Amino acid sequence: MTHGYHKDHRPDCKQILFGLNVTADGHVPLSYQTDDGNQADVTTPIPNWQPLRELLEQEEFIDVADSKLCSEENLKTIAEHGGRLSKCPEF
Hints:
globular, alpha+beta, 3 strands
């Protein structure tokens, strides 16, 4: 844990970034990822996605994410591996 960007501008709060992968049929946890609270959200989708592809030995996923998934690098990597993309606001 480390001091990250706090929306209430509280410098006394430490934060973590937590990502969780679950199944669609019952929300069974498959894997998780933790990062420091100051980790940029835009840098987390691909390091999470690659091990999940290997674990499940498949490419088809539904990513539920906010706009931080919609970086050019993230979308390019997903498309290069046959991933399907929905419309992102920035592109």
